[in-house]
Specification:
Layout lengths: L2 H7 L5 E6 L4 E6 L7 E4 L5 H27 L1
Amino acid sequence: MKSVRLIDAARSGPVIVINCSERCCDALVIIPGQVTISRVHLPNFTKKKAQEARDKMETHTSARIQRWVCQRAT
C-alpha cells in the first residue's frame, strides 16, 4: 500500500500497521494531520505472536458477528 493511502486512512484517527517477517517485526504509526509515517521496531514481537494475535481477533470477531446476527434474527 502506498504511503499516501495510509496517511489518507488516518484522517479519522490513528492507524497502526503491524509488519512482521521471519527477520523482524515493526509497526507503522500514522497520526492524523501528519505527513510522515513513523516506524517503531518491535524487538519482542515475532511473526508467530502476530499470527496468534490475528487468529484470536478473527475468532473474537466471528463470535461477535454471530451474536449480532442472532440478536437481530429474534
